[in-house]
Amino acid sequence: MCSLQPDSILTSIPPDACFLLRTQENYRTTWGTYVKQRKDLTFLTNHNPLYLSEITLDQIKLEVLMNGSIHRTPEIFEVGPICIYQAKGLRPEAPMLPNSFLSPILYSYNNPERKTPVFMTSYPTLKFRDSIVRNVTLPKMKKIFDDLIVNLRSKEENFDFRLLYQDIFLQPAIDYTLEVMKQSCYTGKKILAVVDWSMVDILNEGWQTLNPKIQSLQKFLQDKNEGLTDESYLDYVEKHVILDMLMEDYIKEYFIDFGIFPFSGEGIFGREFSAVNTMTVWNYNYNRYLKKMNALEKTTDTFDL
User: Fold this and answer.
1) pTM of whole model > 0.85?
2) Which of 8, 57, 160, 305 could pair with 187 as two cysteines, CB 3.0-4.6 Å apart?
């Protein structure tokens, strides 16, 4: 990267990533305070951006991030000469592994004289999750879960269930990322983009036919809300449980374990009457689908013997 000397860096981190919380303390502690009490804490980036500047880490914000969340949380992050290592989620007991998306910020941080901006190019996580749930039926979500089970049972290497349902899990993020990439081209001649491997070919194809006109990022974050009027709030919560199983326990670990369901469910049938039981409904469905996953692991272990 030093030999490339990029003018700008794009990396696949969502602007609502928890470690982007503006803090000068241990971010695990700060996150718990934020999610439970919603005190006057802010993020370094905007969760619902209109403009590129709102998802940009300049030198000042990079200093806050590195001197706050990164350096103040040694049980989660370790900074090497060219790489940042991170434990999974909020689990200090998890092994630290190189974070390919977070590590590129070191170039900008270690070379402040170059003033290289870093753009958070991923679709905001919570908005992405809720958009999927609001536009995919419960039977379809269950089928996707079953497809995942089948492929895990077959032990297919490098299986990515998102490629089976690209229009749901990849295309919205692709469209958003392409717009960010396009706008970043006005910030310099050498642009380094660090993206998910599953997106590389699709991004390349989309780049060839990209509309050159600059558009508001908000256009790509608008909910489709295709009107699943026959599904209830209980179905809505169950779909979020399935999605969390499909895409790792992000919602459970960062919100549910703190007693918070981070989605409003606004406009969903039955919300007014059922919202009070949200955590009970979540836990019931989570345990139900977890049993299916655990049964798969036991079957797989037996087969290995």
Assistant:
1) yes
2) 8
